[in-house]
Amino acid sequence: MTAASEPFSSSAFTTFGITSPSSLKPERPLLSRDADAMYWMARYVERAEHVARLMIVNSNLLIDVGDLAPALQARQWQSLLTILRLPELPEGPDLAHRVCQHLMFNPENPNSILGCLTRARENARGIRENISAEMWENLNTLYWSLQSDDAQSRFDESPDDLFRSVMIGSMLFQGMTDQTLAHDQRWLFTQLAKYLERTDITCRIIQTKYDLLKANEQIFDSTLRNLHWMAVLRSCCSIEAYRQNNLGDMDSTSLASFLILERNFPRSVRFSTSGALAAISAIRAGTRGSTIDPAERILGRLDAQLEYSELSEIVAEGVSNYLYRIINAVHDAASAIQRSYFMH
Predict the structure, then answer these.
(1) Rounded CA gap, 12 and 276, in Å?
(2) Contact at 8 Å (CB) between 14 and 274?
(3) Dihedral angle of Cα 210, 15, 196, 339, to the nearest 10 degrees
């Protein structure tokens, strides 16, 4: 058996606090509606955190760079909609405010922060008996902080404070999930959702910003380039981790390599893919024994690809094309999970 086809290493499960499938005995599967609710609750909370971080990073970037051509400023704000797969807003006065409002409060936007937290809370409410009181209280408090009568005025006065409250609330929710929920199937579905969402959106951040920056690289001096690349790292919560491994000016290829291939950083594409694989492997082993799971097969191939990829191969293929293949694989895995575990 070649190295690429070896079974998923049991040591990797320890990294994510997941019991190795070989040590699990088949148990009664979680009801499909409960598994579905656990999965989407966690996925929407993770998404809300990313949207909040993208907006605060983009706002701070435009302050740091100072005067920028209106067309380039508009592209910066529209790029957030591209990352979130949303239609672009028509250009007009105060585009920045309209994008922030659209991504914060618009109930008709499924990827607005309020929309994500509303759906997360609806899923959590349907499975109150399956989650801890601490998880429910945290999510409920976060939701009502955006539904309060003064939410809009607080946003108008200091949008950054509201964005930070969402980011901190999401991290608290994830910590409470790890510390107050038994690490059984319910917890595994939250981990699977978190890592799939993180893989998907990290790829889209790198892809969108990489293309935007490469297209305008000639008009930026080294200081401006560094500010833009630092914003990409902050969007992935990784600037300190990157600096510990790379000194000097920001380099587009080393930055892409770190965010895609870094083995030990919890928000890299490689780490998140391994986390999703560990979770789905444990779910399958705990409920279906030695049967083959389509999502596990897809994620296993993707994990092996990232394990043995080299930066030169990514550059030769093109960073955008390489990430596009990963995004498609994550989408296929999510669809397979939906068919295997939720449609019953």
Answers:
(1) 11
(2) no
(3) 150
Task: Say if CB 57 and CB 239 are below 8 A apart.
Answer: no
Tokens of 61: 């970037």
What pTM does this model have? 0.90
Q: Domain extents for the chain?
A: 1-30+183-344, 31-181
- Helix, strand, coil distribution of the chain in percent, nearest 5: 75, 0, 25
- Give the model confidence (pLDDT) of 248-298 as tens digits: 767 888 899 999 999 999 999 999 999 999 999 999 998 877 787 899 999
Location of structure tokens 């394990």: 307
Both tokens of residue 238? 């990784």
Q: Cβ contacts of residue 124 below 8 Å, gap of 6+?
A: 37, 41, 131, 135, 136, 139, 140
Angle value at C-alpha 200, between 32 and 320, nearest 5 degrees: 150
1: CB partners within 8 A, 6+ apart: none
Query: Under a CB-based contact definition with an 8 Å cutoff, are residues 45 and 175 in contact?
Result: no
Contacts of 245 (CB under 8 A, 6+ apart): 258, 262
Neighbours of 2 (CB within 10 A): 6
Write the CB contacts of 311 (distance below 8 Å, at least 6 apart in sequence). 253, 256, 257, 261
